[in-house]
Design brief:
There is one protein chain. The chain is an alpha/beta fold. The chain has helices at residues 26-38, 56-73, 88-93, 129-155, 162-168, 177-182; strands at residues 18-21, 45-51, 77-86, 101-103, 108-111, 173-176, 188-189. Strands 1, 2, 3, 4, 5, 6 and 7 form a 7-stranded mixed beta sheet that branches.
């Protein structure tokens, strides 16, 4: 089967206004903000990313900037995933509607559950221990809510039911570009 790549249909994607690569962290967020400030003040804006993942909160912050730009200015924002859109990269992608998402050929998306590494140290009078455990449980429960909000944003408008994503995410769901297009997670492949 010959893969259909429609780059010529989307000439704006050839030179993204914002190009991100590497770990999603505070440095990427600062780079993102600088590039966003330097981007043209009108017309569509194209954001590309290549990442193996990183801090989901930084991805959410960048996504919020895109959402606010779209809602306050009415500007179209296009997402272009290059090669690897893993973990926090998929979180960032979820800020764009599915009909504004693109992948380059041979790219992959990887979606997984948030990961927490934590140790709870219990020491002191018994009456002080229950609040420590309750605080950690609250943190876990809120993280699950945030994760599910992001999952819902990622599949909104696609053919992927939220329950399927939640079932597949614990095992690191890798999705090739052609499958992502077929599932409606992206509009097209270039």
């Amino acid at each position: 089967m010959t893969e259909n790549h429609n780059a010529a249909a989307y000439p704006l994607l050839a030179v993204p206004h914002i190009q991100l690569h590497g770990t999603v962290d505070e440095m990427m967020y600062a780079n993102f903000k600088d590039q966003l400030a330097a981007a043209p003040g009108d017309g569509p804006i194209v954001v590309s990313i290549t990442t193996l993942g990183g801090d989901p909160e930084m991805a959410r912050a960048m996504g919020d900037s895109i959402r606010l730009l779209r809602e306050y200015t009415g500007r179209e924002a296009l997402f272009l995933g290059k090669v690897a859109v893993y973990s926090a990269g998929a979180t960032f992608m979820s800020a764009f509607p599915v009909d504004k998402r693109f992948l380059t050929r041979n790219s992959r998306i990887m979606i997984h559950e948030r990961i927490m590494n934590s140790t709870v140290q219990l020491s002191g009078p018994l009456n002080t221990l229950a609040p420590v455990l309750k605080a950690k449980l609250n943190e876990i429960e809120d993280s699950i809510r945030i994760q599910e909000e992001g999952f819902a944003d990622l599949v909104r408008g696609s053919k992927v039911p939220l329950d399927e994503l939640k079932q597949r995410a614990p095992n690191n769901w890798y999705i090739e570009a052609a499958e992502a297009r077929e599932l409606g997670l992206v509009l097209d492949i270039i």
